[in-house]
């Protein structure tokens, strides 16, 4: 059996009610169907018929054959067919007891439907009885020729859920959208949205401040780390300079430009400079203080210097540089302070001085 089942109730005034039920139609009582119809303005004086047989409130679906897409009919009590061995007086008591069993929840549901029930019809009038009898006679033909799924009903189809507590109508999406929202709820929603927006802005500000604080701390930490590293490298440079001074028997120190002049005559003067950016000791000395004016001689000089610098084999692992503006030719080499000991400068200095002297002799021979 499907979860959703439907059946139809046709009234004497032409209205058709479609009931969609979740559950077993065989357990649905006639009294519950009547209470649901009453919430839509159907009077208590109407009798429910199924295939021409009157139904009592205590009957359930499986007793009279209620099934999916079945059709029940409403008719006045006077024109309804009496079930066998069931007096009218007994049916009246059943209707009265069903009316007394209406709960407060059902009364509240009646009030929510809005409006009042139509005025009671005069069931004793001849015109009304004739119309009801004619409607009852036409019911078989109408049941045979009307498609229950496509029947045009005067009231919108209402879905209801069937449970132990009874039949409770469920509002459709159109009914929910047409229901106006209370003003208090609207104001509360606006207040909550405003408060949520303010909280989001505050959270974003806090996140931004946290990012800035992290950046400041990172920069400060990096600066401290850099200072520590530079200080360590500088101490290594000073240690190398002290080691060379001990070898030469003199005291060597860096000046304000972190440069130290080693040697007491021009022929043996070597400069040692500490560079904090590259973390190296630069050792350099002049090979020539004035470039030749003759282009041919200058070309030969350049060729000599380039050939000697090949693979740095003849320049103590360093290189030869030329300054055309100042007319100076320099021989230089470097010591990476991060990867050397305090005796590196002392070990390399004799080789460097010997290389300077050899290059000076070669240049002098070329220019003489």
Features:
single chain; 368 residues; Ubiquitin-like (UB roll); five-stranded antiparallel β-sheet; 9 helices; rod-shaped; Ubiquitin-like domain-containing protein; Tir_chaperone
Notes on the protein architecture:
- With 368 residues, the chain is an alpha+beta fold.
- It has 2 domains: 4-178, Phosphatidylinositol 3-kinase Catalytic Subunit, Chain A, domain 1 (Ubiquitin-like (UB roll)); 240-367, Yope Regulator, Chain: A.
- Helix content is 45%, strand content 19%.
- The protein is built from 9 helices and 12 strands.
- It has helices at 30-38, 61-64, 88-100, 104-112, 126-145, 173-178, 183-248, 295-308, 344-367; strands spanning 4-10, 16-22, 46-50, 53-54, 71-76, 158-163, 166-170, 259-262, 270-275, 280-288, 319-323, 328-336.
- The strands form 2 sheets. A 7-stranded mixed β-sheet has the order 4-3-5-1-2-6-7, sandwiched between helices. Strands 8-9-10-12-11 form a 5-stranded antiparallel β-sheet, with helices on one face.
- Helix 7 (183-248) packs across helix 9 (344-367).
- The longest helix has 66 residues, at 183-248.
- It starts with a strand and ends with a helix.
Q: Provide mean pLDDT, rounded.
A: 76
Q: How would a textbook summarize the main sheet?
A: 7 strands, mixed
Class by SSE composition: alpha+beta
Q: For the CA atoms, what is the radius of gyration?
A: 55 Å
* End-to-end separation: 119 Å
CATH architecture of the largest domain: Roll
InterPro entries: Tir_chaperone
Protein name: Ubiquitin-like domain-containing protein
């Amino acid at each position: 059996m499907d979860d959703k089942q439907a059946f139809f109730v046709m009234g004497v005034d032409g209205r058709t009610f479609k009931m969609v039920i979740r559950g077993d139609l065989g357990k649905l009582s006639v009294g519950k169907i009547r209470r649901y119809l009453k919430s839509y303005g159907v009077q208590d004086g109407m009798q429910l018929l199924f295939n021409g047989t009157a139904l009592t409130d205590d009957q359930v679906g499986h007793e009279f054959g209620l099934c999916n897409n079945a059709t029940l009919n409403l008719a006045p009590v006077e024109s309804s067919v009496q079930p066998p061995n069931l007096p009218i007086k007994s049916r009246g008591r059943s209707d009265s007891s069903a009316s007394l069993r209406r709960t407060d929840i059902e009364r509240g549901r009646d009030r929510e439907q809005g409006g009042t029930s139509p005025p009671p019809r005069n069931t004793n009038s001849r015109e009304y009885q004739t119309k009801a009898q004619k409607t009852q006679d036409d019911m078989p033909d109408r049941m045979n020729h009307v498609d229950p799924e496509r029947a045009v009903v005067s009231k919108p189809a209402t879905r209801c859920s069937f449970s132990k507590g009874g039949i409770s109508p469920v509002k459709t999406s159109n009914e929910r959208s047409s229901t106006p929202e209370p003003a208090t709820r609207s104001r509360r929603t606006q207040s909550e949205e405003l408060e949520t927006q303010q909280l989001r802005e505050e959270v974003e500000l806090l996140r931004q401040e946290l990012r800035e604080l992290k950046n400041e701390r990172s920069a400060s930490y990096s600066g401290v780390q850099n200072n520590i590293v530079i200080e360590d490298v500088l101490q290594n440079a000073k240690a190398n300079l002290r080691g060379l001074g001990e070898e030469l028997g003199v005291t060597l120190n860096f000046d304000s430009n972190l440069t130290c002049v080693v040697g007491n005559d021009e022929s043996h003067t070597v400069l040692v400079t500490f560079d904090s950016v590259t973390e190296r000791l630069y050792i350099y000395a002049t090979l020539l203080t004035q470039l030749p004016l003759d282009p041919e001689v200058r070309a030969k000089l350049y060729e000599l210097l380039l050939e000697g610098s090949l693979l740095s084999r003849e320049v103590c692992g360093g290189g030869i540089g030329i300054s055309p503006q100042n007319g100076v030719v320099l021989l230089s080499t470097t010591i990476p302070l991060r990867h050397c000991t305090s005796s590196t400068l002392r070990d390399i200095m004799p080789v460097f001085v010997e290389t300077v002297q050899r290059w000076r002799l070669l240049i002098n021979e070329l220019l003489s």
